[in-house]
Amino acid sequence: MSITRTTRRTRAKIAVSIGALAAGSLILTACSGSSDSGSKRDGTYYIKDVNGTSKLGQLVVKGNSVSHHEYRCDGVYEKPDVTSTGEFNKDQSQIIWTVAGDDTRNERTGSEPISTSDTSISISGSVYVRDSSDAGKALLDGFKAKCGK
Question: Does the CA dihedral 86-75-57-82 come out positive or negative?
């Protein structure tokens, strides 16, 4: 009798352990799936002469959050003239701007359609190139040369 009881307990413990492992595996899979979608897009992107008002536009993507900065020739490493923040909508097809900043030149309001590739993000047809891409490096080098940095 005690062997049967011990066997039942052991089997029950094994079943509970397998269930816990399966649940943990599902949680990890769900977590990694959600972070992968943002991480492919995460990074810094640039565009030349953004909105016709600034010499350089910078788009910073981290997960679902987006910040947009505009610079004149005072440089990328100084305070931007215009800053906006927003987030991607549920299906990742638009940026919804949530904070427009105080500058009247800011055109980042409401929502704007986006499309993405491995090296760029297009916002309403304006293409921002990833800083680590050849085009991004060339754009930054040109900005630094033009602005004497």
Answer: positive
- Residue by residue, DSSP assigns 76-89 as TTS--SEEEEEEE-
Helices (H), the chain: 2-39, 134-146
What residues contact 46, with CB distance under 8 A and at least 6 apart? Answer: 56, 57, 58, 59, 128, 129, 131, 136, 139, 140, 143
CA distances from 102 to 33, 84, 94 (A): 37, 9, 23
Of the chain, the end-to-end C-alpha distance in Å amounts to 85
Could you give the CA distance from residue 85 to residue 98 in angstroms, rounded to a whole number?
6
Q: Model pTM greater than 0.70?
A: no
**Are 69 and 148 contacting, i.e. CB atoms less than 8 angstroms apart?**
no
10-32 pLDDT per residue, tens: 455 444 444 443 333 333 333 33
Q: What are the structure tokens assigned to 33, written together?
A: 């799936």
Amino acid residing at 126: S
Q: In this structure, which amino acid lies at residue 137?
A: K
Amino acid at the residue 144: K
